[in-house]
Amino acid sequence: MFEKKYYFCGDFGYEYSGDGMSPVFISKNMIEVEKIKDLCLKALKNREFLVDVKVSRNNEIIICFDSFDGLKIERCEELSKYIEENLDREQEDFSLEVGSPGLSVAFKVIEQYQKNTGKQVDIVKKDGTKNRVVLNEVHENYILVSPIKVKKSKDNKENIEMLKIEFNEIKSTKLVF
């Protein structure tokens, strides 16, 4: 009874059936996050790790990666060039931003915890408690931390109490700088 009409605006189109309902937006040629992650994992070098990949509906790609040895801007440029060379702008128009996580950004992957072992971190747990601690050890499902101020015993020896925190208890962890 009603003929479907398609209207396109930029990279997005919408379908309107003429039934008085709002149009449904349809993304054209949206790049899949998994495709970008796969490309990144192929390009990462020894001791580098992927932190996050985001792709917006407008194909704005943001790649965040890091290294246990630190990153130089030239390495970000190399990864950016590799990603661009492996995507077809004729098929998928996109913008690309490649960088490392900022110091004030919460940890997202276990490698960030491993990289920052021995450093002070602020941990916010899901129950709302906040701790400024030293990150001592990183395990598969938990971390071991100790207070910044070490308690001394009566005979003036340092007593370092390790606290175990499961990853599923953590809301956020940030490096103290």
Question: Which structural category do the helix and sheet elements fall into?
Answer: alpha+beta
Total helix count? 3
Strand content: 35-45%
Radius of gyration over C-alpha positions, nearest whole angstrom: 23 Å
Whole-number tally of structural domains? 3
How many DSSP E strands? 13
The strand line-up of the biggest sheet is: 12-9-8-7-13
Biggest sheet record: 5 strands, antiparallel
End-to-end Cα distance:
66 Å
The shape, in one word, is: elongated
Q: What are the low-pLDDT stretches, counting only 5+ consecutive residues below 50?
A: 1-27
Kindly state the mean pLDDT as a whole number? 85
How much helix, percentage-wise, in residues? 10-25%
Please provide the ordered H/E string of secondary-structure elements. EEEHEEHEHEEEEEEE
What does this structure look like?
The chain is 17% helix and 40% strand. It has 177 residues and is α+β, with helices and mostly antiparallel strands. The protein is elongated and about 75 Å long. It starts with a strand and ends with a strand. The N terminus is likely disordered.
Index terms:
five-stranded antiparallel sheet; disordered N terminus; 40% strand; 177 residues; three-stranded antiparallel sheet; 13 strands; single chain; alpha+beta; 3 domains; elongated; SH3 type barrels
Overview in brief:
Helix content is 17%, strand content 40%. With 177 residues, the protein is α+β, with helices and mostly antiparallel strands. It has 3 domains: 1-26; 33-99; 110-175, SH3 type barrels (Roll).
